[in-house]
From TrEMBL:
Name of this chain's protein: DNA repair protein RecO
Species of origin: Desulforamulus profundi
InterPro entries documented for this protein: ARFGAP/RecO, RecO, RecO_C
Domain of life the protein comes from: Bacteria
Pfam families noted in UniProt: RecO_C (PF02565)
NCBIfam families: reco
GO CC terms, sorted: bacterial nucleoid
Length: 171
């Protein structure tokens, strides 16, 4: 992905998570720092960190330590993501779900690092190709789940306000 494509992607994703007229200083600062990293030629991990932190700053920070079903700590060597619940599940809880994606535990550890490390340190993070692919897929799953929820709500509110009496100029 070239820098311009990456820059438009982060701008568009921000737009999806932040509605018009909703001030969010944290997200603005994240966007600026990410654009600086992209300008400096760092793309992949900068984008993944951007995605992870944007979700968090928008109020949807994923639970990465405990099962979203039963709350037990996630200790298994495989990580299971439920598309229906939008979270990670232990093996027992995952067996009751039908849309499950399985990831390596290392991918989860990289994701935690993206939340912990300073953005400017991320170029020091060495991530094997398979984990990079999984990380991208896992973040995408979180984004789709939360964006779908968010945009549905927005649509709902838009419809609600449009249909409410007493609005507009023809009163
Ligand atoms: Zn569980």
């Amino acid at each position: 992905m070239n820098r311009l494509t990456a820059a438009s992607y982060v701008a568009e994703l921000t737009d999806g998570f932040v509605g018009e007229g909703e001030p969010n200083q944290g997200i603005f600062a994240l966007l600026l720092s990410t654009l600086h990293l992209l300008a400096a030629g760092e793309t992949e991990m900068a984008m993944r960190a951007f995605e992870a932190r944007l979700i968090g700053l928008a109020g949807f920070k994923p639970e990465l330590n405990a099962c979203s079903g039963c709350g037990e700590p996630l200790t298994e060597t495989k990580i299971r993501f439920s598309a229906n619940l939008g979270g990670l599940l232990c093996q027992a809880c995952a067996s009751a779900e039908n849309k499950i994606t399985v990831f390596n535990r290392g991918t989860l550890e990289v994701l935690k690092t993206l939340y912990r490390w300073k953005l400017t340190k991320l170029h020091q993070l060495k991530v094997p190709e398979i984990l990079r692919q999984e990380l991208s897929a896992l973040l995408r799953a979180y984004i789709e789940y939360n964006l779908e929820k968010r945009l549905k709500t927005t649509e709902f509110l838009d419809r609600l306000y449009k249909s409410s009496p007493g609005r507009g100029t023809n009163i």
